[in-house]
Amino acid sequence: MEEGHLPVMTDEVIGTLAPQPGSLQIDATVGGGGHTERILEAASPDGRVLGLDADEAAIARVAQRLARFGDRLVLRRANFRELAAVAPAAGFAAVDGMLFDLGLSSFQLADRERGFGFRTGGPLDMRFDASRGVPASELLATLDADELAALFRRYGEEPAAWRIARAIVAARATAPVRTAEELAALVERVSPGNPRLRRRIHAATRVFQALRIAVNEELDALEAGLAAAVDLLRPGGRLVVLSYHSLEDRIVKRFIAAERRGCTCPPEAPVCVCGRAPRLRLVTRPSLTPSDTEIDANPRARSARLRAAERLAA
Ligand SMILES: C[S@@+](CC[C@H](N)C(=O)[O-])C[C@H]1O[C@@H](n2cnc3c(N)ncnc32)[C@H](O)[C@@H]1O
After folding, report:
1. How far is the CA of 271 from the centre of ligand 1 (A)?
2. With CB atoms 3.0 to 4.6 Å apart as the test, which of 51, 113, 204, 234 could cross-link to 118 if both were Cys?
3. How many Cα neighbours within 13 Å face the side chain of 94?
4. The predicted structure's pLDDT at residue 193
5. In a domain, 192, yes or no
């Protein structure tokens, strides 16, 4: 197994995708390649995987680590919001399985050049794809207090959002907040409560999560990626999504519910006029969570929630 990032709920992911020899699968978030490796093993001898990641370093690492699979593994550095174009261009226009393992990898969290972790430190960049968009430090330097507070509230559900936003704007009159250490210290200073309480740590977690989601437009990308995934799945193909916080899980849950329902006509409409048929059905309980044994072995798994569905013929 890859040192550095332990794949989460691997047995459940493989059990649900059930990759067969000869099948085509897409891992939309290849990361350290842990899930991809297990999918390729399960789909031996000739199943193929298209692995995407927005992060160039992830693609380079996996290309080297999983080189033994030869042309059974196709890698593309791409955002999964572009799946509808990227997958057919790579020869994966109709697939049997699709995995999204959301958020960031332990490699990214540990990288001191990228500022993802308040314990790791480093310049506040936080982009999965450093060639696009703006770094987190720029948002902190340019948004006004209202915009910052809205961002921390919306993407971090942070109760002290306004207080933290005002402190950032006040601090930057002297010097902009440029590093993860500076931001963590500022949040620590202005969050309510005793500095020694765990609550403090949670405030930094929420603020860092909010910035990361905003910098990478993660929720918009997820909506676009899920929509493309259903279009790409063959009837009987499986969609598996691992999410790590309530904002992304809510999107996945609502998306699956809407695709199970099909019809989008208002409830008071006497007959269906939209003509939309259900395109997904559930294959597991509505959601699965990791076992206690897995959480003990890999604390990062503790917030994981797996949702899965199967494509119908419609
Ligand atoms: C939790 S890790 C995946 C770990 C992987 N399943 C494994 O077993 O090693 C999430 C990965 O998704 C990538 N990512 C996040 N959002 C993305 C997006 N919109 N498009 C492409 N990759 C994305 C991140 O760069 C990160 O490498």
Report:
1. 42
2. 204
3. 5
4. 66
5. yes
